[in-house]
Structure formats: C-alpha cells, structure tokens
Fold each of these.
Amino acid sequence: MTAELASIVDFIRYAASRFAAAGLTFGHSHDNAIDEAAHLVLATLHLPPDLPPAYGQGRLTAAERERVLALIERRIAERTPVAYLVGEAWFAGLKFKSDPRALVPRSPIAELIESGFTPWLDGRRVERALDLCTGSGCIGIAMAERNPDWRVDLADVSEEALALARENIAFQHVGDRVRALRSDLFAALAGERYDLIVSNPPYVTEQEYAAMPPEYGHEPRLGLTAGDDGLDIALRILDEAADHLTEDGLLIVEVGESERALVELLPEVPFVWIEFKVGPMGVFALERRDLVEHAKAIRAAARARRR
C-alpha cells in the first residue's frame, strides 16, 4: 500500500489517516491528526512547518520514505509524542530541541509572549524576567528572543531539564542574556528580584495523571503532577514570589484545570484570569502588591499542605 505514496502531501495525508484510525491523543503542540502528521513528515525531511504549498508535491527519496514510515509506525505503536520522535517542537514561533528530559513545549503563554504581554506590561519597564519551572526553557528563551533588552533567568529543580534548556539557549544564540539555574522554585535565588516572573509549573492532579493517555507517560512526571488538587507548586510560588519581585513586579502563572480549586481556596485574592483567543486557559496575572496584601491567607494555604 505504501508503495503508492510519493509526495510530501501523500505522506502527510497517509500519516494523518493512520493516526486518526489508531485513536491517538493529540495534546503536545497539536490538537488534530493533520497538524501532527505535518509536524512529523516535515521535521523528518528537515523542512519548515510553513513550507510553501508548491513544494508539497516534491517526491521523497527511498531513504526518506523509510525514515518517515518508520516514525509513523513508532508514533502509533509506542504512543510517543511527535516532538520526541523528531527531536524538535515549535513554541511562540521558535524552534526548540525537545526530548524526554523535559515536557514537550506547549502553553497558552506563547500567545502572551507573541503579543508583548499587552496590556499587562503596557507602560512598565522590564529589565529582568524569570521563567520558573522552565523545563526545556521555551518560555524564557522566547521572552528573551522577543525582548532583546531583557535579561532572563531560567530556573528548574531538574538538572536533566536544565541541560536541555542550556542546549536551547545555545541553539537560539541568547547565551549573553539568558542563564539557566538549578533551583527548587526560589530556593537558590536569594537576593534576586525580577520585574516579571512567568511560570508554567506542574499542576496535574494525581487523579488526572492516573487517567492520562499513554502519550503523557513519556514525559517526566516531575513536570506534570502537583498533589491532589494540582496546587502544591502554585501555592509555594504565590507564597514566595513577592520577595523576588520588584515593587511594581508582575506574576503570571498557568494552573490549567486547577483554576477552580485555586479560586475556592483563596477567594479573597484578586486573580486576573487572562482571556486568550480560544478563551480562558487557566492562566492568572497578579501584582506584587496583591501578593503582599494577601500574604497571610496565601501563606496559611501553602503551609497547610506541608504538614
């Protein structure tokens, strides 16, 4: 059957059909079989994702056919995310190296980066920014790439993730403005202050993790789970962030489906839930002054689960 396949478009169509028939889960940068298939085929052929349509009729060599077909079969049999199979993912318009040392780059925060964080940073001066729980480094590196005058720190507790982040720093040529630091949240950042702290921390509940499709089992669990309500890490960030923000500093954190639990736990805190093009995505913005004003309630909630 595959002998009839010849062009790039043929292989994308074939892969999409196979993926849909196999009932694969799409949640790592793509939400459908066609985009996932295009990522696999084009990356394997070392072609850009915005390849002009005229090139779609280009024919694959025998060696290229073999490589593409092998990865299609692995995607189905192993349920490995495409980004890990081809070693790359796109985030905020940039290509990043991707492998099982860190989660596949994905977050609605990419939309904020591409829009310049408007209106949240309108009128603010940002000199230093922190990407907390950085994983592959995609958020912090994309911030630095979009804002050449920012100095950005990437922090993560996982040395494996930081090794990948450092590779991405070199890959994007931002080593003069971006550094990667090993830190359990703010533990190794004593004395450091930032105008902007952005974090996509673990926020999957234990119940949710147990029910996740096999694709997510290829990612480090450390980067996904955060207790029974998904808030173990987010509450620690809220408790400690004020000490690392400048006077007019801003905190932006993604908590996904744990948004409801956070609002119920801290109803008095004035979280601003950001609206994206597709709607709300569980990302809040909070001023340093609000963190200070509600520090007592935040600290009580954070410490209650450490007992």
Amino acid sequence: MKGPLFYSKILLFGEYGIIKDSKGLSIPYNFYKGALKIDENLSVEAEKSNESLQKFANYLEALDAHLVQFDIEALKSDLDKGMYFDSSIPQGYGVGSSGALVASIYDKYAFDKITVLENLTREKLLKLKEIFGAMESFFHGKSSGLDPLNSYLSLPILINSKDNIEPTGIPSQNEAGKGAVFLLDSGIIGETAPMVHIFMENMKQEGFRKMLKDQFIKHTDSCVEDFLKGDIKSLFGNLKSLSKVVFNNFKPMIPTQFHELWKKGIETNEYYLKLCGSGGGGYILGFTENIEQTKQTLKDYKLEVVYNF
C-alpha cells in the first residue's frame, strides 16, 4: 500500500502575524512529499514513524467526535501491519512535515470527509482548518491548521484573517525570470514550540504589540498584496522594510550565524531574508531580483530556488 502523495508547504508571508490576524500566503512546495506506506520489515526510521503514529492514533481517538471522527479500527489495524509515513520532508524546517502527515491520515481514515473535489465554500475551508488544527496540535501544542490544509488541497491559500481564508491563484512562474524566492538551509533543526513561547512572552510588552501592528503586520499585508498583483517594485520595497523589522525585533528566531548575512542583504539590497515558519533554525526564506548574482554571493550556503519571477 502506498497512499496518495502529500506535499510540503511554504508560508511565504504571515509567520507570527497570522496569530494576530495579519494576512498570510501559503503555497504548496512539491519538492518534498510524503505518503503512508505499509511494510513488514521496517527500517529504524520507519519504526520510529510507526511508533509515533500509534500515539497519534490514540490522540485522534480522544478528539471531539462532533468535530471529526476516524475509522480508528482500520487505522490501528494498518499500524499493526507496519504502516508508517514515508517522507522526504525535513522535520523542524518550517516546511510542514507534520502538516503532510495530518493531511494523509485525514484523507485515508476520516469519516464524512470534506474532499478536494467538492465545491469548497468558506465554511468548508474553515471546518477543515479547524479539524486540521485540532489534529496537528498533537505535534505542536497549538496549531492553526494551515499547513495540513495547504498540503491537503495542494493549492495556494490566501489568509485574509483568522476566519477568512480562500484558495488563490499566484502569478505564474517565469522560468526565465531573474528574480526568485529561495530557501537557505541553516543546518539547524528549529523547534516551533519554544519560538512561539518567546513570541507570546514578547506580546506581553506594549511596545512589541505596537511594533507588530504598526510595522510587522502592515508590511506583511502589503507584501501579500504586491506578490499576488505581481507588483515587483513595490514588493521589494515592502520586503526590505519587513526584513528590517524582523531583524530588529525577532533576533532570537534568527540563528546567530545568519545575523551578518541578514544585515548584509538589507545594506546591499541584493537580497532580503525573512523567517520561514517559526524560525530558530530550519530554512530561512529569501527574495532576490537577481538570483544568479545572489547564488554567487551565497555560494557557501545551501540554497534552493522555490519560485522564479
């Protein structure tokens, strides 16, 4: 058995801000993927996945039955046969490893599931997001449900506010374009929960809350609008502002060895860096108008192009 493939995701804009109702834009990233598989002879890695899934199954059994119900019997029977989640999605990198797993379990074992093929009204999307949030909380403590939603639908999702989300189109890639969105590998695994904890502690300070509302969310919203419209000139102006605000106010989320590189991008205008997910490690997201030049500048780092424009 090999289940359907579920892809990783990248939250282009909105990390942290969406907790406080900023806009956000999340896109599927097909480079990484995962699927449920059954195998009698499990590798060490697959055995760990199987054990984790057994705990997850117990957690799902206790979820609010009004929200979602699963065929727990079938799930546990498959787990006894050696089912695991076979995935190339790196964990702790902000690209949605648990999101793809949650989507695959919902797809295979949920009763009365909302499918991608039906007319996805806003109510259905919000219901899915709520279900996925409850499921993914097993891994993260508290989850918005966006990562699994993105993985499940395999569509870009525009977050207008907490209770207003919609699938969206993004400008087509221009393979010959010089501009690009890229990922930089920090080489460190990021832990979501401690980073969110730091953020929540900071939110107790009035100055931080003001900065979030007046600067961080303002620039994030503008970046989302510019990106969807394809207004590159305005986008890069707003990206620079956003990169600065993050550098000045989210230092703990930026791995120390990237502080200089981050600053250099802002000073030279050659590229701008931002957090990918909660930060603290994993990937760092970058934007440049000249990818060839940026590849040269960052040749000592692992760089992956995600999107060309």
Amino acid sequence: MFAHAQTDIVTFDSVLDKRDSIDADEPIAESFSAKQAAIYLDRASLTWQKERNCVTCHTNMPYMFARPALASVQKDSGEVREFFERYRTERWKKKAPMEGQGFWVIVVAAGLTFNDMQTTGHLSPITRDVLDFLWTTQRADGGLDWPDCDYAPMEIDDHFGVTLAALTVGIAPDGYAETEAAQAGIAKLRTYFNNNPPKSLHHRAMIAWCSRRIDGLMTADERQRTVEELLAKQLPDGGWSTAGFLTDWNGLERNDGEPLDTQTSDGYGTGLVIVISRELGIPAGDPRLQKGIQWLLANQRQSGKWFTRSPVNDAGNLISNTGTAYAVLALQSCGELPGWPFESPTSIPTTN
C-alpha cells in the first residue's frame, strides 16, 4: 500500500516494519508530484531503518543527498539524519569499525556531508569528525573496503566506494579537503586510482565527477570525453539506461543469462547523467538535459518513486531508491526544484 499525499510528517513509528516490493509494473503517476517523491523517500528510508537497522548505499544514503530539495513541499521527521549521526555518537563509541569495514564510514560520511551541503552549507562537528575518522579505515594502497554482492554498479567492487569517498571529500564545505588529514588521504586515493583503472563507463563517470573537485584524477579532455560519452547514450524517449553504462565492463554478465537491458530508460541512469553533466559544466538549458528532465517529469510512478531495474543481478530493484534520489537531484540541478548547492566547484590541487 502506497502513502498518499498528505501534510502529516512520515515518521519511524508510522511506517511499516517491512519494505514494499519495487516492481516494474507499478503505474505511472498522472502528473509529477514533488510531495509524493518526498513521501516515498521518507517511507523507503525509514522502513529500511526499522527493518534492517543500518545505513546503506542504495536507500538512506542517497536519501540524505536529495531529501532537503523537497523540504519546501513536505517536512521530514529528521530521524534519518539522527540515525546517521548516532553511528558516530553511539555505535562507534562502543566498537569502532576496522580497516575492513570502511564501507560503513564512507556511507555515513557521504550521507552527512551531502546533507550538510543541502541544508546549512557548512560541515557540522559530527560530519567533520566522521570525515576525519574515514582516513583510519583507508588501506595502505589508498583504497577502502566496499561490499562485493555482485550488484553492479553500486555494490560490486572497491572502485565505487573509493570514488564515493573521493567525491564526498571533494564536495565537503569549509575547506575540509585542504586539511592535513584530508590531503594525506587524497594523495593515497590518487595512488589507488593510478593503480586501478576504471572498468566501465560508469566507473569513468564517477571519476569524472570526482575530478571536477579533486585534481589529478582525470584531465579536462578526459572529463569532456566522458560526459559526451554519457550524453551519447541518451535513448529516443529522453532517458538513459543504467545498463548502458556497463556494456564495456569485460566479463560482467547477468546470472540469468539475459542480455543487459540497454534500451529501457530508468531513474538512476537518467538522474545520474543529468547530475554529472551539470557538475561538469553542461548548462541546464542544454537540449539533451531538458529532454531528460521531461522524461523524469513524465515517468514518476504513483508511489512517488522512479523505477530502475537491478541491471545485472536481482537485488530487489533497490537501486530504484538511489534512482529516485538522483531524479530529485537532477530536477534540482536544472531548476525544477529549489536550492541546488553545488555550483562552481573548486578542484583540490595536487600537492608535492
């Protein structure tokens, strides 16, 4: 049962104990509703929190990225933010994660940092503390451990986690990336990327995004080629397919033997391309981005989500939650929603 547009705040106590299934056959909404998107994101994240009691890269982390963009149409309870903060103030006081558990620190750091950018524009003391803590889980090779559940593109290799960590440090406000701890960690991140080349367009896209804020990861020409390659994957209906970013990944195949579905537009692919394009300097009025925005406005589901099929192996289509957050960010980046905070990034230079 889906929540309907309402003025009541969605809370931890009001959501179900078990999440709804995410199905491709859910009907398209009659019209775009920012309020319904907010309600869906609240329900998905708080239900995950109630059911699994953990932070995760596919649901409540991207919620933290995008939910403030919808605050003017639907207030949130603040319970997801509080849950992220409790990792540092409670959980890690009892047992701190070790090097092999870098995943948790990356997810918490990314969620809090993006949320700070979207709200106050300044690092909270807890966020800064988590960012400093991140470096304690960095390996000698510069990488950080990330889960391999065979769920491309997000939960399959360390590369995604390392790019997410680099992006988080790069977007952190108040000059965090220029601190001594961050500079040492960034130098090791560069070493990791030098020794672990990208396996797919999705990998390259993430590096291009990071490189807009941290120098030494990709040249300007490489960045331009990457964004043009992404834009060239646009489908006739205006959207993008997540699977279309994975076709050059040597050896990546679906377990069910089906070919990758590169011809069906989805929320994650469309939202990600628009957000990265805006970050890499493509204007909001570019016809390709505007066509993508029109796809997003026309393809929201009745629950408020944007559907994305698990592109490689069945993961319950949970990437739809990330896709919904990126759809919101894409709309925000092109002025359809207020408050895009990521204009004019400044790169962090390489130090000798």
